[in-house]
Design brief:
Number of strands: 8
Radius of gyration: 21 Å
Protein name: Flavin-nucleotide-binding protein
Strand content: 25-35%
CATH topology: Pnp Oxidase, Chain A
CATH class: Mainly Beta
Number of helices: 7
Strand order of the largest sheet: 2-3-4-7-6-5
Low-confidence stretches: none
Organism: Cladophialophora yegresii CBS 114405
Number of domains: 1
Largest sheet: 6 strands, antiparallel, barrel
Shape: globular
Order of helices and strands: EHEEEHEEHHEHHEH
InterPro entries: Pyridox_Oxase-rel (IPR024747), Split_barrel_FMN-bd (IPR012349)
CATH superfamily: Electron Transport, Fmn-binding Protein, Chain A
Distance between the termini: 21 Å
Length: 258
């Protein structure tokens, strides 16, 4: 029997409410991170500020040390940012690394029940916790920049003016988050109404219940005013159509009970 690798359960990442929906599987958690366009990264800006800072950032899972690692193996989280931003300065000044959390959520459906309290979403969410330090070498920075660019559109890095010039390399900082632990939470299926409501004909005969599938879809690429390439590149056309197909199927699959 093959055993999937899991993040260790610690007080800060153990799912308590609806714990049956929780997952610690590396593959599941990393996949959610890698398919979410915008990650939300939280950290403590300073001891004297009571509120945590939360930033929308682009990030991706990878391993510079073991580049052939699969999505279900231990990986770092690379985050892209500007060299002088506060999160970069704090990470640079920390010996161990800046402690932070990375969160991602995908909504797969609107779950419409008989009563307002029973409404829900079908969703996939993931949270990573770890310590962030700036990537120091150009080799690892280029590795991470390629991963991040190809997360936006698969194959895009190879179809741009590369490598970045010295100004671009200097102005960009990549954070490597050494992940301490993580967890995910997944809800799929239809409405879960209480028996007392399901037995009431006056309610069930007038209230529609079910799931509205939700998925991210890309439209036809629109060229810029300075674009000189007549046809949409095949890699871009393929990425749009394939991702739309996969996103739609994921939303439809989520309607079924696990």
């Amino acid at each position: 029997m093959v055993r999937n690798l899991e993040y260790p359960k610690k007080p800060q990442n153990t799912v308590k409410r609806y714990d049956g929906r929780g997952t610690y599987d590396l593959g599941a958690i990393h996949s959610i991170i890698n398919t979410t366009s915008v990650l939300h990264v939280s950290f403590a800006p300073s001891p004297d500020q009571p509120f945590p800072a939360i930033l929308p950032m682009i990030g991706v899972m990878g391993s510079f040390e073991y580049p052939s690692s699969g999505i279900d193996e231990p990986l770092d989280c690379y985050l892209h940012g500007y060299v002088s931003s506060r999160i970069m300065r704090l990470a640079r000044a920390s010996d161990k690394g800046l402690p932070l959390c990375v969160a991602a959520t995908k909504v797969d459906g609107l779950v419409l029940s008989l009563t307002p309290n029973s409404h829900s979403y079908n969703y996939r969410s993931a949270v990573l916790q770890g310590y962030a330090k700036p990537v120091e070498t150009d080799e690892e920075k280029l590795y991470a920049m390629r991963l991040i660019t190809n997360k936006v559109v698969d194959g895009r890095w190879e179809n741009t003016r590369i490598p970045p010039d010295n100004v671009e390399m200097t102005s960009t900082t990549i954070l490597r988050v050494k992940v301490e632990t993580g967890s995910g939470k997944i809800r799929q299926g239809g409405p879960h109404d209480e028996a007392k409501d399901e037995k009431r004909d006056d309610v069930t005969e007038k209230v529609w219940t079910g799931v509205v599938p939700v998925y991210e879809a890309f439209d036809t690429p629109i060229p810029s005013t300075t674009n000189k390439v007549k046809q949409v590149p095949s890699y871009l056309d393929a990425y749009v159509s394939q991702t739309n197909k996969e996103n739609r199927q994921a939303a439809l699959d989520a309607v079924n009970e696990p």
